[in-house]
Amino acid sequence: MDEKKAAILGEIPRLRRYARSLLRDRDSADDLVQDCLERALMRLDNWQTGESPRRWLFTIMHHLFIDQMRKVNRRGEAAMLPLEAGEAVAQPAEQLEGIASREIINALQAISPDRRAALVMVAIEGFSYAEAANMLGVPAGTLMSRIARGREELRGLLDDTARRRAIRIVEK
């Protein structure tokens, strides 16, 4: 039993990263991770020993996220919380890599949650299309469509950001 708990604890950084990419709010993301861990520990017998708990935990988290979104939509409240001012940009970036990273993160946050979840699962977390489709509960074709549309949307957003940055540089 302790091996299972240790394996689950080892996945917390990945769970936090995925939760933050879904919710855009550190506190809400931490709450989602905690809910996921609670559910996982209550249903520890559902996880098969010898396998990585990663897929199982990400599936639990995704289902909790969808449930949370449905509750919010029923109440008529805003589904996504804006980044706090201090969290968005703590200090101006001094390196181009820092600026590019922030632009990518902001663009990723601007796309729809379904597309963002699909992109994060495959491009960042490294799950295969089949694994991600299974965890998200959609057919593989739907997942691939979401990824393609999400990538296209990201390209458009990043092209606009690069154009605006170039215009600012010229204006100085």
UniProtKB/TrEMBL annotation:
SUPFAM superfamilies found in the cross-reference section: Sigma2 domain of RNA polymerase sigma factors, Sigma3 and sigma4 domains of RNA polymerase sigma factors
Highest taxon in the source lineage: Bacteria
Keywords: Sigma factor, Transcription, Transcription regulation
GO molecular function: DNA binding; sigma factor activity
Record Gene3D superfamilies: 1.10.1740.10, Winged helix-like DNA-binding domain superfamily/Winged helix DNA-binding domain
InterPro entries referenced in this protein's UniProt entry, alphabetically: PhyR_sigma2, RNA_pol_sigma-70-like, RNA_pol_sigma-70_dom, RNA_pol_sigma70_r4_t2, RNA_pol_sigma_r2, RNA_pol_sigma_r3/r4-like, WH-like_DNA-bd_sf
GO biological process, one term: DNA-templated transcription initiation
Sequence ranges assigned to domain RNA polymerase sigma factor 70 region 4 type in this UniProt record: 102-154
Domain PhyR sigma2, residue spans: 9-62
Keyword field contains Transcription: yes
UniProt xrefs under CDD domains: Sigma70_r4
Family membership noted in the UniProt record: Belongs to the sigma-70 factor family. ECF subfamily.
UniProt name for this protein: RNA polymerase subunit sigma-70
Annotated organism of origin: Rhizobium loti
